[in-house]
Design brief:
This protein is an alpha+beta fold. The chain has seven helices and 14 strands. It has two domains: about 110 residues, Lipocalin (Beta Barrel); about 120 residues, no CATH class. About 30% of the residues lie in helices and about 35% in strands. The strands form four sheets. The protein has a four-stranded antiparallel beta sheet with strand order 1-2-3-4. Strands 5-6-7-8 form a four-stranded antiparallel beta sheet, with no helix packed on it. A hairpin with a 6-residue loop joins strand 11 and strand 12. The radius of gyration is 21 Å and the shape is elongated. Bound molecules: calcium ion (2 copies). One calcium ion binds next to loops.
């Protein structure tokens, strides 16, 4: 009887993708994605998560059939969002692979949303995310510093990776627009001393992601309100925290593309 009631409350959204059926399903207990070929299940996000414990793929909120790589054939783009205060968001791009499907983009953005756009105007889609690496580090969540990361399709492998060049350009644009963090400007404390504001960290983070590491250092030191020797230590800590980003290699050491 209970199972029957749950079945009644299931909500199914259905999409067609190149002869396949894509279903975003939610019931009282779960919210998942299925891809079917005439009734044969090619992909089930619940099964995939069981097989890949590190993967976050819960509650598909944005399902789109579109040409992600610009070759004239449609791919399937799916964004998942767990619900809750901020976390967690992830996005996947599925491609047809003979009789099967395969994942060619796999983005976990944690506390921030994900969007897609043709960032460089060349006909394929980039995936744009805000890096949440500093969430909860120096301030409460509302004052989190953010910078953008742009993932573009690698021609050789066909998978989406962080693009150093586009990431820099996007953050240069944010700095030019003087677009700051959302939420509140809050003190960053050392003991009882307010040494910086979160808006300073936000701007410094964008400078670093724009490729201007030295400018960011100078900016932090210039705005420091505590004892000067501590500023150098703080800068080191700040950079170390940023190097914890999943995209650190692209931000700090990426080649031009
Ligand atoms: Ca395509
Ligand atoms: Ca593009």
């Amino acid at each position: 009887m209970i199972l029957f009631l749950i079945f009644l409350q299931a909500e199914v959204k259905e999409y067609r993708w190149d002869g396949l059926t894509v279903r975003a399903i939610s019931d009282e207990l779960d919210a998942w994605l299925e891809i079917l070929d005439e009734g044969r299940v090619l992909f089930d996000s619940r099964k995939y998560c069981e097989e890949h414990p590190d993967v976050w793929m819960y509650n598909p909120i944005d399902v789109r059939v579109l040409d992600m790589d610009g070759d004239g054939e449609n791919e399937l783009y799916v964004e998942f969002y767990s619900g809750g205060a901020h976390c967690c968001s992830s996005a996947y791009v599925f491609e047809r692979d003979d009789e099967d499907v395969k994942i060619v983009a796999d983005v976990f953005s944690g506390n921030s949303g994900i969007s897609i756009e043709d960032a460089d105007g060349d006909g394929d889609m980039e995936i744009v995310v805000w890096d949440d690496v500093l969430a909860y580090d120096f301030t409460p969540y509302v004052a989190t510093p953010w910078a953008m990361v742009v993932l573009s399709r690698d021609e050789d492998s066909g998978v989406w990776r962080c693009s150093p060049g586009l990431t820099r350009l996007y953050n240069i644009a944010l700095l030019m627009e003087e677009k700051g963090q959302d939420g509140y400007d809050m003190c960053v404390f050392q003991g009882e001393t307010c040494v910086l504001y979160s808006s300073h960290l936000d701007r410094a983070m964008k400078m670093i992601y724009a490729g201007r590491v030295e400018d960011a250092r100078e900016y932090i030191l210039r705005n420091w309100m505590g004892r000067i020797p501590h500023a150098f230590r703080f800068w080191k800590t700040f950079v170390e925290e940023l190097k914890g980003s999943q995209w650190a290699e692209c931000i700090f050491g990426g080649e031009e593309d």
